[in-house]
Amino acid sequence: MKAIKIVKEGRVEIADIPQPTIKDGHVLLKIDYVGFCGSDLNTFRGLNPLVQLPVIPGHEIGATVVELGTNVGPDIKIGNRVTVNPYSNCGICTACKNNRPNACRYNETMGVQRDGAMTEYLVVPIQRVIMGGQLSSKELALVEPMSVGFHAVDRANVTDSDIVLVLGCGMIGVGAIVRSALRGAIVIAVDVSKEKLELAKSLGATFTINSAEEDLAASLDILTHAMGADVVIEAVGRKETYLAAVDAAAYTGRVIYIGYAKEAIPFDTQFFVKKELDIRGSRNATAKDFAAVMHYLKMKKCPMEQLITGVYRVEDAQLALESWLSDPGRVFRLLIEF
């Protein structure tokens, strides 16, 4: 069967690998769509320290069940559309014992620490399969990245009395905007792309700030009467946004970091103390977050055509990543169709 492999920096190859065989407690999936995410782009750029090349990327999955192993239970049927929880967990580390398996110390995410889903077929343990209901395979391929943003909002305990500043309006930032708006918060979206900010507004952002054209601190002061944001969600992973998050947070505010910064960052830590900030990381997503995203998508209020920037054939995976790299501000999600 065909598989997409990132074999070295800047190079994708289409490999022919054996089709996996069904196992006890597993199901065989025919992959329909898989999304390229920011971690895949960083792998392609040679900037993902968690990846050892070559690797099969992909963990944003829309698929169809084509074969059932033994002991999978009666609820899943051949022909069901599904997505997949792409994370692993050990069950014995402190995160797992604290019922937060999304942050497992030994997690191996598909397409990052282990081979991913950009193959024609995939065998998956039944525990990782999430039934798609009436959602299409394209919609299901958007569930995982949006769930990461949903999880950050949960980590921040966002309520309808909060002002939430979201730094970065890619797919994960979009997830944070949507869920914050669903909870009734005032949402301020920040990005350097006019197109992304327009979409953020349509998805529930009350205000937008183009940080390439406006002074972020001055604009935020106007919108918050110089009080700052109750919650700041960083969904970029750059030094500038990591530092801006602390500056933008209100006294006793909550700062949530999703993005992985690629360098050491020198903080002026006095503001951690003076503002008595709650600073939290947000990693991956939980089953509850997946369910919340799927409930939102079932409402059919999500502008799918705007979130999916392009759909590419397997043979054009190299072109897909090159096009994203050449104009990152334009791209929300690129899907590979199998």
Account of the protein in words:
It is built from twelve helices and 15 strands. It is α/β, with parallel strands linked by helices and 338 residues long. Helix 9 (270-274) links the parallel strand 12 and strand 13. The radius of gyration is 20 Å and the shape is globular. The longest helix is centred in the middle third of the chain and has 13 residues, at 143-155. It has two domains: 2-142 and 302-337, Medium-chain alcohol dehydrogenases, catalytic domain (Quinone Oxidoreductase, Chain A, domain 1), CATH 3.90.180.10; 148-281, Rossmann fold (3-Layer(aba) Sandwich). The strands form three sheets. Strands 3, 4, 5, 6, 7, 14 and 15 form a seven-stranded mixed β-sheet that branches. Strands 10-9-8-11-12-13 form a six-stranded parallel β-sheet, with helices on both faces. Strands 1-2 form a two-stranded antiparallel ribbon. Helix content is 30%, strand content 27%.
Give the SSE map.
Layout lengths: L1 E7 L2 E6 L9 E11 L1 H8 L14 E9 L12 E4 L9 H4 L23 E5 L3 E3 L5 H4 L2 H13 L7 E5 L3 H12 L3 E6 L2 H9 L4 E4 L5 H9 L4 E6 L4 H10 E9 L12 H5 L3 E4 L5 H12 L5 H4 E6 L3 H10 L6 E5 L1
Helix pairs in contact: 4-5, 4-10
